[in-house]
Amino acid sequence: MTSLNPATTQFLSAQPLKLFVGGKWIEAQSGKTFETLDPGEGRVLAKVSAGDSADVDAAVAAAQEAFRKSGWATMPVNDRAVILHRLADLITKHQEILAQIESLDVGKPRGQAAAFDVPHAAQTLRYYADLAVHTRRREPIAVSGFDVRTLRVPYGVCGFIFPWNFPFLLIGWGVAPALAAGNTVVIKPAEDTPLSTLYFAKLAEEAGVPPGVINVVTGFGETAGAALARHPGLKRMSFTGSPEIGRLIAEACGRNLVPVKLELGGKGAAVVFDDVNVDAVAESLAAAVTLNAGQVCCTATRWLVHEKIRDAFVKKVVATLGAMKIGYGADPETNLGPVVSEKQRTRVLGYLDKGVKGGATLLLEGGRAEVKGHERGYYVKPALLTGDPGNVCAREEIFGPVAFLMPFNDEDKVIELVNSSPYGLANSVWSGNLERANRVAEKLVAGNSWINAHNLFAHGIPYGGCNLSGCGGGVLGPDTLSDYLRNQTVARPLA
Ligand code: ADP
Hints:
Helices cover 40% and strands 22% of the residues. The protein is of the alpha/beta class. It folds into two domains: 259 residues, 3-Layer(aba) Sandwich (Aldehyde Dehydrogenase, Chain A, domain 1); 191 residues, 3-Layer(aba) Sandwich (Aldehyde Dehydrogenase, Chain A, domain 2), CATH 3.40.309. Strand 10, helix 9 and strand 11 form a beta-alpha-beta unit. Helix 2 packs parallel to helix 8, helix 3 runs antiparallel to helix 5 and helix 5 packs parallel to helix 6. The longest helix has 24 residues. The radius of gyration is 23 Å and the shape is globular. 55% of the residues are buried.
């Protein structure tokens, strides 16, 4: 059940796992290491080098050098695309190993990592490699009396700081467009989940990505992350994580006038009208709120259900959530793995406590879950609360398998309620009446409105937030490639 591919075991046994800087695998200059845990077992998975500002300096210097000298930025775009497709081929070839690593490090079901996280990253890489080939890099401009053209050139070194919920998938969303455009990158994965990013670097090396184009500095946020965010050698920065840290990153980048892309949290709503197949919607929302143990920025955590179907919905959803198979990621039966850390479990349980003390009622109790044979893992049962929209669990991002149900009976009021959140990442509308669904979807203020589905991702469909959920243009759309190309206009008077 838990058997690993020998290549996964070999990768994990080369401890401490090293940083990847300038095409070389090196230990942190301080010699320090940290431990990454298997959240399903609560045990140490691997020792990893703890990079800090000295290592970040070396990584940025290597990326600068590679930008100037490796030929990556200037090579014909189709040659670059060939290398990126080779990298995508290798990701596909190593899919089983990557899924095992991701499942061990994050806790997510192995099958989900193999079916979603890993192939999705490979597809995104292919999408941007191809899009770059079809993007005009030299645009003539017709202005009387001038010979003018605008070149679209890569920026230089781009920094990326990633969270722990989708470490591998987010490399595709974040880094792929930057690389396809010809930039070089320094990646700081989350300290809880550094492993698949290191494996990505290993595959990039094998694919023939020139040394220094991709650099990985593992380490903590306050040291490695902060050093990267404030580095004056960056030309662009991208951060995915909490709004609190996003603010710090934006402040640091602001000082250096480095443009920044922020993908932050959310408090997504699902608006369920009374003309739906209640059982089917209940099953879909139960699946949405438990995907990745609820550790998904855009998931639906506020369930606004028409009062006419409220009781039938609650009955079905409580039964569905209650029947979830909570278990270890490698168990093929598991559809709800552990949360990523003890800290995260404490946070989720703390919210349930605060929510109830604040007047909410538990429709499904939630709480700590014990999994036989994995007693030290960080398992949490799904929970469903109901109560006032002002309740802390209805307002704040919990990042666990917890939903908050609120009945409604008026279209305008429910739109107002959804839009009262300071976040603006993704919501969904569920109705048999497509005219109504489209009308409401357009009025919800967020980067994404989904109809009769929640958590819809595909390369080519822009994804991103507004308000507290982020800024800087989002990811995954065709425009994201343009975010990594700057304009340079060359003009000459003809007279
Ligand atoms: P979470 O609360 O979900 O762990 P964070 O926003 O704290 O999310 O972390 C997301 C990423 O930001 C991680 O890679 C983390 O190491 C990094 N990080 C945390 N604090 C800082 C900081 N002060 N400066 C830069 N990066 C940070």
